[in-house]
Amino acid sequence: MLEELQEVDQLIDTLKGTLAGLQAEMVGINQGVETAREELTLLETTLSQREAEKKELETTHAAELENIVRSETNMKEIKTNKEFQAVGREITAARKQVGDLEEQLLQKIGAIDELTGEITTKKSQLDELVENTSQRLQEKQGEISHIQADIDTETGRREGVVKTMPASLVKKFTILREQRRGQALAIARDGYCMGCNMHLPPQLYNNLYKNEELLACPHCQRILILKLQPK
Ligand SMILES: [Zn+2]
């Protein structure tokens, strides 16, 4: 009974470990998609910033062009040479400004084109990832359900085993298992405890043959199970 309990407990532990691993994988898969989505959002935010900046440049550009036209119209009504020169300087400065703005606009358009390309690539990558991911998530979910069903089955089996055992023994076994890294039982063979590899007192070893009571290893406290033949 104790051996079966140990076996079922170890099986449950292994299954739970597998389950935790699968759940961690699912978290990882979801995080991958989340990261790709955040990257795309960042690119889109940058694009709208660049577009707003482009719009502002266009507005300034249009205003400067208007200024030039106005100055040129005004020139026709100018009487003095001094005034003529002043307006001429204004127009030259405005034309230089227009040139600078056009240069900046070209750069902005280049940056926008580049960003748009990046966004297109990123979007198709994300679509692919989402499709890929949903398949993988479904697979993982299937595996998880499978493992969970196994855990339920084994838990049922454990309950069955426990029912046939004295409650005090189950308690002792459970505490020992927690203290001894999952191994509450140890095989006794050739006068040794296989749990801690220590020599057992001869009297205790002899008593094991009598099979009258549960005996524990005096060194590691595990419950001893006598096995004459090597496994
Ligand atoms: Zn021992």
Q: Which SSEs are present, and which pair or pack?
A:
Layout: H1 2-75, H2 81-163, H3 167-179, E1 185-189, E2 192-193, E3 198-199, H4 202-210, E4 223-226
Parallel strand pairs: 1-4
Antiparallel strand pairs: 1-2, 2-3
Helix pairs in contact: 1-2
The structure holds zinc ion.
Tally of extended strands?
Answer: 4
Q: Give the radius of gyration.
A: 41 Å
- Helix percent reads over 70%
CATH topology group of the largest domain = Helix Hairpins
What is the number of domains? 2
Task: Identify the CATH class of the largest domain.
Answer: Mainly Alpha
Mean pLDDT reading = 93
Query: What small-molecule ligands were found?
Result: zinc ion
Low-pLDDT ranges: none
Query: Which architecture of the largest domain does the CATH hierarchy give at level 2?
Result: Orthogonal Bundle
* Straight-line N-to-C gap: 18 Å
Major sheet: 4 strands, mixed
- State the order of secondary-structure elements, H for helix, E for strand: HHHEEEHE
The strand line-up of the biggest sheet is 3-2-1-4
What proportion strand? 5-15%
Query: Treating each run of at least 4 consecutive H or I residues as one helix, how many helices?
Result: 4
Envelope shape:
rod-shaped
Q: Classify the secondary structure makeup into a structural class.
A: mainly alpha
